[in-house]
Predict the structure.
Amino acid sequence: MEVDKPPALQVRYEDGYQDGPEVDARGITAEGTEFSGIQEFKKHLLEQKSRLAKHFVSQLAVYATGGEIQFADRNEIEQLRKIETKLLGCFGNLLSQMKSKREGSQSLLDNTSILFGSNLGNANAHNTRNLPIFLAGGGFEHGQYVAHAEDTPLSNLFVTMLNKMGLETESFGQSTGELS
């Protein structure tokens, strides 16, 4: 029996897509649920949104504070999970409503750029690298993770957004130009 060759991982960097190593996306979850690819895994995760949110927020807290979550932190993490889940739910609802409204031949979301995130990657250290940023709408190519050079200022995204809206500008704040 011939086994399908796993697809190559593709990551978009500022200078374009790069093929990575072949990725076998089959696996088994800790509970024993088998999945044959990324789509089945995604479906499995979405069936457990509350659990996914809890673990996601816990990992964000570890990253943001630079320290492991202790047993004594569980109440604060649960409160943070509730807050973050509500915030992201509101953001998702806003995007859904904007997508459903027509503006000419396109949706309101297609004609609007919405930026959601934080100006700190590690709040405990006041670090402004690796910022958690979501960009929706505005005719950008979405549904991907985009990695830029570590020293790329967030304001380069603002320049890109302004230019995409037809407000030609070369700089904004500490920008060094547009994102590529």
Observations:
- The mean pLDDT is 78.
- DSSP finds four helices and nine strands in the chain.
